[in-house]
Amino acid sequence: MVQISIQTMSDVICVQLSGELDVVATSNQADELQEVLNLADKALLIDCSGLEYISSVGLRFFMKLKKESQAKGGSIRIAHLNESVAEIFSMSGFQNIFEIEK
After folding, report:
1. What are the beta bridge partners of residue 21?
2. Which domains does the chain have, with CATH numbers?
3. Residue 25 belongs to what H/E stretch?
4. Residues contacting 50, CB < 8 A, separation 6+
5. Which residues lie below 8 Å from residue 74, measured CB to CB, with a gap of 6+?
6. pLDDT in tens, 30-80
7. Spatial distance between the Cα atoms of 47 and 33, rounded to a whole number of angstroms
8. Angstrom distance (rounded) from CA 1 to CA 85
9. Helix (H, G, I), strand (E, B), or coil: what is residue 77?
10. How far apart are CA 15 and CA 18, in angstroms?
11. CB-CB neighbours of 53 under 10 Å
12. Please, which residues bridge with residue 79 across strands?
């Protein structure tokens, strides 16, 4: 299950993800994930330092967030991917779609 924490900083909203972003998490935390999608018009920093696993459903959430952000004039940066999640982003081509910070 994924835990989601949202903090507003001076000019960016930090969304911290921890745990597993998979089909169970997306159904159990649908309201929290929708809250993140509702912020797509802002500058978002997605902190994945606690994200242990992401499935194709989790990748679909990131893609939906990207599309919402582009449509609403927001921006997304992703930070602190661990090795296994970074590998999934790389294999799926997401490292070319998102701005990823170490």
Report:
1. 54
2. 2-101 (3.30.750.24)
3. helix 23-28
4. 3, 16, 17, 18, 19
5. 39, 40, 41, 42, 43, 44, 68
6. 899 999 999 999 999 999 999 999 999 999 999 999 999 999 999 999 999
7. 14
8. 15
9. strand
10. 10
11. 15
12. 47, 101
